[in-house]
């Protein structure tokens, strides 16, 4: 998987349960919001299932640029969220 640029840990390492570097999501309007913890139940997966993209454990914060992370503002996919467009 690789080393996370935010927490500097190997994302495939099973002992890494959360990204310790993903503390706030910062938006162009200056607002900073806590990330939404990973919840496999949202995708109708077993409660123990790790994120299929960045491998965090349930309840953990995703590694930045994970395609499964949700936007805390709108609930959409964070990596392609319109909340980051300058004219929003």
Commentary on this structure:
- By secondary structure, the protein is largely without helices or strands.
- The chain has one domain.
- It is built from no helices and 2 strands.
- The protein has a two-stranded antiparallel sheet with strand order 1-2.
- The radius of gyration is 13 Å and the shape is globular.
- The mean pLDDT is 92.
What are the salient characteristics of this protein?
88 residues, globular, two-stranded antiparallel sheet, little secondary structure, single chain
Outline:
This protein has 88 residues and is mostly loops. It contains no helices and two strands.
Q: What is the total number of structural domains? A: 1
Average of per-residue pLDDT values: 92
**Tally of DSSP β-strands:** 2
Based on CA inertia axes, which overall geometry fits?
globular
Output the helix-strand order: EE
How far apart are the first and last residues' alpha carbons, in Å? 33 Å
| Poorly predicted spans | none
SSE class: little secondary structure
Radius of gyration, Cα only, in angstroms? 13 Å
Strands side by side in the biggest sheet: 1-2
**What's the main sheet like?**
2 strands, antiparallel
SSE blueprint:
Layout lengths: L24 E2 L5 E2 L55
Antiparallel strand pairs: 1-2
